[in-house]
Amino acid sequence: MRSLAPVLTMIVALIAIWYGAAVALNSAWALDKAKRADVTLSTSALIADTWSQEKPRLPAPNQVGQEIWKTTVEKKITSKRSLIYHSWITLQATLLGFGLGTVLGFGLAVGIVYSGVMDRTVMPWVIASQTIPILAIAPMIIVVLNSIGISGLLPKAIISMYLSFFPIVVGMVKGLRSPDMMQLDQMKTWNASGAQEFWKLRLPSSMPFLFTSMKIGMAASLVGAIVGELPTGAVAGLGARLLAGSYYGQTIQIWSALLMAAALAATMVGLIGILQRVSLKRMGMS
Q1: CA 256 to CA 259: how far, in whole Å?
Q2: Tens digit of pLDDT for each residue in 9-24?
């Protein structure tokens, strides 16, 4: 219980700041309406108005909570208005992109560690690739793949892969190089082959780095999936909900989709954390 106290305190503080910001940002519209109606608003009435506007600049937490409740609990998961339905659409691209990014990142890391040529040539390009804004490259990927008849899930997954492979590469390179010289010399003393050195020493030593990188990669993959939905004019997915909300000024819809995306990312990262604890415990590294 003691460990939860700081977390709960921070949550309460953030919600209080959120409510205060909603009053500050939405009060101008409330006062303008009251002025045109020749009505004087009391402080309590002003606050109540700022927390209940249909299209506020910043929706209050209770408005976002009500929207999430309506679009999750009160809607069938097959409904096009269900956030669960849209989350599943985005999650498919996220998981595929994360899987592709993990495989690509792992393969590049092994090559970089074991090949001096790849270390000098590939690693700088891996780093340089992340300097290109994803909002600039996403439409290019969509257009190129559409021109060869590839659309739907795969383009979004490739954009997710583009964001998620980088932390895997960096983490695994660091992890595979983590054994010290004494450990490497001991493997040579035992006349271990290169494959044995990799499977028995380098790979187990890299596991903590891999799982940490996977957590970052999963979050980045979700961002990539959402960004990938924007230039396609998608009608399903959390990115589509954000896009539709921005078109029609539905800030409550935008914030509910954002919080759903955050919850989805937290869930997936949490699952990786559970896998990390179980795996490292079985390896005797917990």
Answers
A1: 5
A2: 888 899 999 999 999 9
